[in-house]
Design a protein that fits this description.
Strand content: 5-15%
CATH superfamily: NAD(P)-binding Rossmann-like Domain
CATH architecture: 3-Layer(aba) Sandwich
CATH topology: Rossmann fold
Oligomer: single chain
Order of helices and strands: HHHHHHEEEHEEEHHEHEEHEEEHEEHEHH
Helix content: 40-55%
Number of domains: 1
Amino acid sequence: MKQLHKQSTMPISHTPKLYSPKSQKHIRSLPRSLTYLLREQRLLFIFVGVLIGSIFFLLQPSVNPLSSATPSADQPPRIFSANRESSVRYQDPNYEHNLGTRNNYRYASGVGRIPVGIGRKRNRIVVTGGAGFVGFDLVDKLIARGDDVIVVDNFFTGRKDNLVHLFGNPRFELIRHDVVEPILLEVDQIYHLACPASPVHYKYNPVKTIKTNVMGTLNMLGLAKRIGAKFLLTSTSEVYGDPLEHPQKETYWGHVNPIGVRSCYDEGKRTAETLTMDYHRGAGVEVRIARIFNTYGPRMCLDDGRVVSNFVSQAIRKQPMSVYGDGKQTRSFQYVSDLVDGLVALMEGEHVGPFNLGNPGEFTMLELAEVVKETIDPSATIEFKPNTDDDPHKRKPDISKAKELLNWEPKISLREGLPLMVNDFRNRILNEDEGKGN
């Protein structure tokens, strides 16, 4: 025991420590960022990088913007910035159409990469009812100019086939949703197109139609208020009812039957306009209102009850064209691309509206039938039927306000646009007949 006690009390020799906190005291006292640079020769690498970069720019003067600022005597001056943009726009008539499909940068000789459209940001836009034939053209136009687009549609009248060509596009999204129910999105602009627009569809479920006009518009206006988005309502010429003023100006308050079979649509749109203006005045929402007159074009529903689609479908199928009443009631027909141009001009402009968007060219139903016969089948016949309730006798827009404030007017006449619609209808009707085994 004594021996063990002696061993335990003997001094133990220690090997010298490799690390001493005292020896590193001067390093700890330095700022953390400076300590980082001093370790592992990082400062040397920084100086070497700066030196290599300086040598590169000295040996390659063509990439230096300063070297191109003063042209030599035998070199013409280059055009930059807005001047160059203006010259490209002037020389290329398809500049606006191709702008959305170009890359984010283009190369100008000797000046590296120059951003395109630097003054305009990419918008994130929602289009309700975007699977319809108007929505199709609008969505295509917005994506072509470089925006991100979300389509919200419940496919009551819209068709998913209209949007198949956009599936896989990173700037396109499709949400199956009924706007009668709220939805949460983060967008810059809202084009509110959702609502059945043909008598066949809105008379099928009139209560749902007016709910779409009222609750759907309320939900989208509430969304616009929460996120600070611009809101555009697509109203209709039906707010004028069976008008006592001809042509109709935006100041005309209309002549509408509030309890008729068409009032679910007529009064629904009038209420939607009221809600839109109340949100504008009371909540500061930035709004736009478009009153759309009769519109036609490819991808319309084949049997939606509207006069142009009815006549075209019947003439292709070798059926008599149905003329209701005496055929002397008038309508004005605009091609869908003209309408889309007007909607975009309205959204991008600074005026609330309402604005009439339509073609002031006026046709009776009998005159329209003759144009369809000339385009499709000169041997087509006409069948007269009793007129429907509350059918307006005259309908023609006064578009002087849109001309003055939006710099917009339709460009495509009925005889120019109708063949484009006929080709689409003929292909779809033939495919439909083949599917039935005819």
